[in-house]
Every structure is written in structure tokens, then in C-alpha cells.
């Protein structure tokens, strides 16, 4: 039997990439810390003394904290974006892929991959949101407040273990009689528009404010899935045992899952994927919050954001494979009376079609969760300087909640007249130490805010990167 070591390796890498691709966009933990412009600028945590529309998407209880400066606030066109995660570790990337010295040995590649991944998945995510309008009202006595806003957002998250890179870097090198390589991945990508209402109330019997923000969510499109497999490499064979579940609704269903085939030149229908699919699902969510006044200059806050579900119905489908194994045992050199390369290609093509081409399709609706996140924080008001710090932990990572494990954030705001300044730091969680900052323009009746964050090193006090920006073009205060 003839078993060319490199051909099956590259074939398997390509097929695994395609199978993970079925599960949704693979270039995708996202929204903790970008819930307000001030939050981005102070390390990802919001101050209890933030007022107005910024409280609607962070902690609704904070709408009734502090004194009433203005009754009515109208925020216009706030945008936010984020990319990062613990898959983004440039030190390991440079070692494995940009090494200009001698090629890495198998042991060196294995050691670097173990440092990068360990036995877990690493993730990368993106998040983008646009809030064209948010309005809040609080009467002069400050005991209650209400708000309403509309927001669109797109969330993508994907994770993978070291298996695929192990196969790509080390190939079919054995080092023993047999090598088993677990190769697993998952991804989620979805777009929504939500209409949110907010109600906050300050209790009379306790120095406590509570708040609730329910939302009606319209799903525009969804693609996601989970892929698990094991590649077994021996002297005489390469075996890939696999399973996956891919789900989609709206344009991603028609443009990706309906058209997908590993054996077509065009893997997706670009026109269908980019089309306006309209409403693909509907759901609801709720944010809850409470802020306690420990003393006049110190507040403790707890909130939970994005608790809810979306039911996807339009063009909804779930795809699973009919087969679960690809096996390549080599070829007889003269089996086809032709060139060895042609023989291998013909044999592999036949095996690939039998293993991967046929799928099961279930065209019923399905339900997904929101990126639920728990936040604990405190705010210390020192007049010209306001300090805040806390932790956030994702409760539904599958939907893009971040981070897990807990991320710690510490920040401050310098109330420098019409030019307020913010600075902060964020560490642990899904990124290394990340520095944040922000600046504003405050005329009392009008506010403009900008905040951002950057990770200078992806291996200091944590692992990973976080790059975020948020901008509000204006908040009119009456």
C-alpha cells in the first residue's frame, strides 16, 4: 500500500476547515464592557453615577442614583465596536508562524501549542452595535425614571482547540505507532434589532435603587454550530471520526446551508447571503439592576444584562452529517494504471464524497439564548474624581457573553470642567492587561463622548487581546 503522508494531511485540513465553516463564520466574546461610552473608557465597568440613556444598557437602577441635573436626556447615534479574545495571543502566533530562524521541531511546536491552548478552547469574538436613539426622563424629586431606546447589534464568537493547528504544523508525524488528534470548534453569528424600555425606582425605606429594562428583540439572521472530531494517524491509515450540528435562519440559511457543498466551486451564494432577509426570528430579553448607597460617596451595584431568548423561524434549519467517518488507507501503486498523484487524487475524492457530502436537514424552528452577563461593581465619588471598579462574568458564552473566567476592571473619571477625562485598566478574563481611556465635551445641555481600549501585550496579567471603541455623537439634556 502507498500512503503519502502530506496529501491526506492537507486534504483533512481543508475538509475540517469546511466543516467548521458550515457551523457559521469562523472569524468571530463580545459585549461586556461596551455597554456605554463611559464603560469603555474606564476599563469596562460603568459608574453608578452615570445618568440618562447610558444606564439603559448597563444598569437600569442607576437612572435614579444621585441628584437630578436634567429631567430629559436624548442620546443620538451611539456606536460601539469590539474585537478580541484569548485566541488572539501574538507571542504564540509569532513563534509558530513568523519564526525566521530554524524550522520548529515537532516537540517545539507541541510545546508552544500547549502553552497557547492547554486542554481548552480559545476564542475570538467581534461585536458591533448602533443605538440611533435613546431617551430617558426623571422628575425633579428623582424617585423614579423611565426610558426607551432602539438598538441594532451584530455578535460573532468562535472557539477552537489546538487540534487543527497541531495537524497543520506537525502533519502526520507520528513519534509513536499511532497519534490521536482531537479537533473541535464552535461558532455563533447573529444580528438583531431591539426596542428597550426602562423603569427605575428609588426606595424610600432603604438607600436602594432598583431597575428593570425589558426589550422586544427582532432577529435578522443567525448561523452557528458545533464541530467535534478526532483524527487518528498511523503508519498505514488516516481516520477522521467527526460529528457536527449546524443551524441557521434568515439569509445565512439560504446563502450558506442551502448552497453549501464541499465539492462545489462556489461554497456559498454571496447574493443571497448579502440580501435583506427581513425578520427571521423574534424574542425577548430583560436587564435587571440594583444599586445600594453604602454612604453618600460610596455605592455598590449589581446587574445582569441580556437575560432572554430568541426563537428563529424564517428559513430555519438544522444540518447534521449522515456519515461520521472518513478513512484513508492508501492506494495500490498500479491500481489505476496511471500516475501516482492521479491515483491518490481519485481515491481520496471518492472517499471524501462518501464521508462528507450527504447531510440530514431538519427545517423546524429553534431557540437561542442571549449573551447573559453578571456585573458587580462599586463607585467612590471624591468630587472632581470618581473611581469605580468591579468584575464581570459571562453566563452564556455560547451566545457571545464575555468573559469567562472573571474579568476585573478599575477606572476613574476626572471631571475637568467641559472636558471630562476617563482612564482605566482591565485584566484577567479573556484578555491580558488592557488599558482604556476616554474624553468628552460637556456643555451641560449637550454632551459628546468617546472611549476606547487597547491591549499592548497579549501575555501580561492574562492571555488575549481586547480592542474596543465607542462614540456618542451627542446627548441633549433638558
Précis, in short:
The chain has 8 helices and 19 strands.
Structure description:
The protein is an alpha+beta fold and 478 residues long. It contains eight helices and 19 strands. It has helices at residues 6-22, 37-41, 90-97, 106-117, 163-170, 251-257, 270-274, 340-356; strands at residues 72-85, 122-137, 144-160, 178-202, 208-234, 238-250, 281-295, 298-312, 317-321, 325-328, 359-362, 366-369, 373-381, 385-394, 407-414, 421-428, 434-442, 446-454, 465-477. It has a 14-stranded antiparallel barrel. A hairpin with a 6-residue loop joins strand 2 (122-137) and strand 3. Helix 4 (106-117) runs antiparallel to helix 5 (163-170). The chain starts with 5 loop residues before the first helix and ends with a strand.
Low-pLDDT segments: 1-31
Largest sheet: 14 strands, antiparallel, barrel
The structure class reads alpha+beta
Distance between the first and last residues' Cα = 82 Å
Helix content: 10-25%
Q: What percent strand? A: over 45%
- The total count of strands amounts to 19
Please give the structural blueprint.
Elements (H helix, E strand, L loop, with lengths): L5 H17 L14 H5 L30 E14 L4 H8 L8 H12 L4 E16 L6 E17 L2 H8 L7 E25 L5 E27 L3 E13 H7 L12 H5 L6 E15 L2 E15 L4 E5 L3 E4 L11 H17 L2 E4 L3 E4 L3 E9 L3 E10 L12 E8 L6 E8 L5 E9 L3 E9 L10 E13 L1
Antiparallel strand pairs: 1-2, 1-19, 2-3, 3-4, 4-5, 5-6, 5-7, 6-9, 6-10, 7-8, 8-12, 8-13, 9-11, 13-14, 14-15, 15-16, 16-17, 17-18, 18-19
Helix pairs in contact: 4-5
